[in-house]
Design goal:
Order of helices and strands of chain C: HHHHHHHHHHHH
CATH architecture of the largest domain in chain C: Orthogonal Bundle
Mean pLDDT of chain B: 85
Radius of gyration of chain B: 22 Å
CATH superfamily of the largest domain in chain C: MetI-like
Number of domains of chain C: 2
Number of strands of chain B: 2
Structural class of chain B: mainly alpha
Number of helices of chain C: 12
CATH class of chain B: Mainly Alpha
CATH topology of the largest domain in chain C: MetI-like fold
Oligomer: heterotrimer
Helix content of chain B: over 70%
Number of domains of chain B: 1
Strand content of chain B: under 5%
Chains: A alpha/beta (about 280), B mainly alpha (about 290), C mainly alpha (about 300)
Chain lengths: ~280, ~290, ~300
């Protein structure tokens, strides 16, 4: 081959590579580009487990598009479902699947964009790290009242539970303690974040929280030998799992639809994974 | 003439509007809570426990919670407030009592949420370690913090009441050889009993009506507290917690029952205060 | 002697009470100030956004308390705008035009309104919002406007009371001079009485501003949220400082957020302290002028 022909081939190869790279580079920004030219407000409320993802998503969108406002409130899954059903918000998040009655009553459309688990947590200073389902049931029912019965220090167990509207509580109640009783003396906290803060600051506390929220400030408790982590939830080994839903009243339109679609986009799913949840895609 | 009438009607309208708002608030509570009576759940409201999962929506634990926490706060706050008022009203000498007066007035401007914030990070761990049981989020912590909150109300009322005792009595007593303490105990306190009682009643109204302290510090367990270290829930915190729930359900409507109880309670206190009458003519309205 | 012993203990108890109260308040407030002093900086307010961009509303602020501060500002501005005309007018009516029977009856109602727990006012606002949402327009929901209205109802009795007291405290000479010179009732009111009682009225307004700025219970139920950015419309959700502090205290994600909470608490404390000092100054300053006839 002549030298110029070789050179030409290299240039062509390089050009093709550049074109391919150029085609791939804007993939991340592309997902946000769906919001181009859009204006308005998206009101979100409901499940507190979703909040970190919602906040991060809102931040990225609002940073790029000045005309879009996204407001995020908590309240729990029950609140999210009711409020979106009543038209008070555009997107109602829930950490449990809405019941058939709720879907029928409010004409809900469900969008499950992540899978999460609910794990029992204790304070990092607590030596008790492993419990059986029977023990967890007894602890939360109030029949086991002292840590020494579980191999820990001789101190009373401080129970923390969620409010009635919480999807996390509903899933925990159904799947972890088999719909057993939760002691009425338990301290009530109103969100996953609040549960985490409470257990992190109480050396003798025990509570339950979304797996995605578990970090170094609390220690997860192994349930029947299975530790609640991203991996065990993903593989299905950890049984107390739930989907993270964003619900709308009827089919979403306009800005809300673009937002919901964004949650399923690669960027959106990456945010979910980054916050400790299992992406569905 | 016409202008006079117009202004009078306009301004009177503003006053009438304000009265209307007062009535409207009560009206809303009654109307929205009415279905409770129809559903026959009315009496159960005041006797049942709060277990909505099992169909019980009684607000009795919350009523007890309110009474216990407010009552304790008053018990803690009254002696301290009386002492401070005594100090400011003449029992203390030197520059410090005047400074205390300034401090108390300043306290009325401190946001409740800041007290709650400090309470969570300073008081709760202390109580938890000191009691060595419970989570620190309990009746005792809430009552202690609440007593600090309502102290300025009581102190300022007491000081005003003491100031309104006719000087002639005090001068006469001094002339007869009474010491400062004797004057205080035998003349000022009896002479100012109206103001003292009003102060206590108003402070208890404040204690009953406070939301944030109980919400942040008392643990919010909807159960009858059996000891000082137990968590409890007040009517006000209950409203804050449950309002986030369903607005058609029976649970939500119990909020209006809570509202009615609170409204009647504070109204009774207001009427009581008016009946007692205030010692001073130009009563300084306590800061909210 | 027994007498002296009892007396000494009474005095001791008085001093002890003073000490207990001072230590309690000093401890609580001091703890917040000391712990949070380190977080006071532009970063606390603006996060990672450039301050100028944030203030010109060119870029949104995240991880900073600027949106909450603006939200509080908007909220207070709106509620005071609603409350002051009604409150001052009603106060004037009570002091100048009302018969003693009306004074007694209305006065009772205003006292009741003043005694209503703030959470009930919030519940009322929320119920009204839901009611209007169902009956009047879909667009009405708990929002800045509803919160401002509810806060206005909250501070109304204080405005009425301070205006009434300010007018009623005017010395007789002031009241009879103008009419003696031929002024009508209205003229006396607007040109003489009101200017003289302005200090009392203004300090009442300032105290109401402080009340609106620090209230949490009412706004919790009527539209404040944890994340909303800078307030955009009165029919939208918004952030506010006291709610920010409350949320952080319950659920802080990391040390950085907790420090922001402390910083926000200091900022709120500073704002309320400033307003309080301002109100006191105005009341004292102009009261002095009044006393000595200087104007």
């Amino acid at each position: 081959m002549k030298k110029s022909q070789m050179g030409f081939r290299w240039v062509m190869a390089a050009a093709v590579l550049v074109l391919i790279a150029g085609g791939m580079a804007p993939v991340q920004a592309d997902d946000l580009a769906a919001f181009d030219g859009m204006q308005g407000t998206v009101r979100i409320s409901g499940g507190t487990a979703h909040i970190p993802v919602m906040k991060e998503t809102a931040k990225r969108i609002m940073q790029r598009y000045a005309g879009i406002q996204i407001t995020v409130a908590g309240g729990g899954s029950g609140v999210g479902i009711k409020q979106v059903g009543e038209g008070l918000v555009d997107v109602g998040n829930s950490g449990r699947k809405p019941t058939d009655e709720e879907i029928a009553k409010y004409d809900l459309k469900l969008f499950k964009w992540a899978v999460d688990g609910v794990g029992v947590v204790v304070n990092p200073k607590n030596p008790v790290h492993s419990l059986s389902t029977a023990q967890v049931k007894a602890v939360f029912a109030g029949t086991i009242g002292n840590w020494k019965e579980l191999g820990g220090p001789d101190k009373a167990i401080n129970l923390y539970t969620r409010d009635e509207a919480s999807g996390t509580r509903a899933v925990f109640w159904k799947k972890a303690i088999g719909k057993g009783p939760i002691s009425a003396k338990a301290n009530v906290v109103v969100s996953n974040g609040a549960m985490k803060s409470a257990v992190a600051s109480d050396p003798y506390g025990i509570g339950y929280v979304s797996v995605g929220h578990i970090d170094k400030s609390v220690t997860p408790v192994t349930l029947d030998g299975v530790t609640p982590t991203l991996e065990t939830v993903k593989s299905g080994v950890y049984p107390v799992a739930r989907g993270l839903f964003s619900n709308t009243k009827g089919e979403p339109t306009g800005l809300t639809k673009v937002f919901v679609d964004f949650l399923f986009s690669p960027t959106g799913q990456a945010i979910a994974a980054e916050k400790g949840f299992v992406a569905v895609k | 003439m016409f202008r006079d009438q117009l202004v009078k009607v306009l301004f009177g309208g503003a006053a009438a509007f304000s009265v209307a708002v007062t009535l409207l608030i009560f009206g809303f509570m009654i109307v929205l809570g009415a279905p409770l009576i129809k559903d026959g759940a009315f009496l159960a409201l005041f006797t049942d426990s709060w277990l909505p999962g099992q169909g019980q929506v009684g607000i009795a634990p919350m009523i007890v919670g309110t009474l216990v926490i407010a009552g304790l706060a008053l018990a803690f706050s009254f002696p301290v407030s009386l002492g401070c008022a005594a100090l400011i009203s003449g029992l203390g000498r030197g520059p410090l009592p005047a400074l205390l007066n300034r401090l108390v007035r300043f306290m009325t401007g401190i946001p409740t949420v800041v007290y709650g914030f400090a309470g969570i990070f300073l008081l709760v761990p202390i109580i938890r370690e000191w009691a060595s049981r419970g989570s620190g989020l309990c009746v005792l912590s809430a009552a202690l913090l609440l007593s600090v909150l309502i102290a300025p109300t009581m102190i300022l009322f007491f000081v005003d009441a003491f100031a309104a005792v006719p000087r002639s009595y005090l001068v006469a007593a001094k002339a007869l050889g009474a010491t400062a303490v004797q004057r205080f105990v035998h003349i000022m306190i009896p002479g100012a009993w109206r103001g003292l009682t009003s102060g206590v009643v108003l402070a208890s109204g404040r204690a009953v009506g406070d939301t944030l302290i109980a919400l942040m510090i008392a643990g919010n367990a909807a159960v009858l507290p059996e000891s000082l270290m137990d968590p409890a829930r007040t009517l006000t915190a209950h409203i804050a917690l449950v309002v986030a729930a369903d607005f058609d359900s029976l649970e939500f409507r119990t909020l209006f029952a809570c509202g009615i109880v609170l409204y009647l309670c504070t109204t009774a206190m207001v009427i009581l205060t008016r009946r007692i009458g205030s010692a001073s003519e130009k009563r300084q309205w306590p800061a909210p | 002697m027994a007498g002296t012993l009892t007396e000494k203990s009474v005095v001791l108890w008085a001093w002890l009470s003073g000490a207990v109260l001072t230590i309690a308040v000093g401890g609580l407030v001091g703890y917040v100030v000391v712990k949070g002093a380190g977080s006071l900086s532009l970063h606390l307010v603006f996060g990672d956004t450039a301050p100028l961009d944030a203030m010109l509303l060119r870029r949104q602020v995240f991880d900073g308390i600027f949106p909450a501060m603006l939200g509080t500002l908007a909220l207070v501005g709106l509620s005071i705008t609603i409350a002051v005309p009604i409150g001052v007018a009603a106060g004037i009516y009570m002091a100048e035009f009302a018969t003693s029977r009306i004074k007694a009856v209305f006065g009772l109602f205003f006292d009741i309104l003043a005694g209503i727990p703030s959470i009930l006012v919030g519940l009322f606002g929320f119920s009204v919002a839901v009611f209007l949402h169902h009956r009047v327009s879909d667009r009405i929901m708990p929002c800045l406007l509803i919160s401002a209205l509810s806060l206005a109802f909250l501070v109304l009795p204080y405005l009425i009371r301070t205006t009434q007291v300010a007018l009623e405290s005017l010395p007789r000479q002031v009241r009879i001079t103008a009419p003696a010179l031929g002024a009508t009732r209205l003229q006396t009111l607007f040109w003489v009485l009101l200017p003289q009682s302005l200090s009392g009225i203004v300090s009442g307004v300032i105290l109401s501003i402080g009340r609106c700025a620090e209230d949490t219970a009412v706004i919790m139920l009527t539209g404040v949220v944890a994340t909303a950015g800078v307030p955009t419309s009165v029919l939208a959700n918004y952030e506010a400082l006291p709610f920010f502090i409350y949320t952080i205290s319950a659920q802080y994600a990391d040390q950085a957020e907790l420090m922001r909470g402390y910083g926000a608490a200091i900022v709120l404390l500073a704002i309320c302290a400033l307003l309080f000092i301002l109100a006191t100054l105005i009341r004292h300053r102009l009261a002095d002028h009044l006393l000595y006839g200087v104007r």
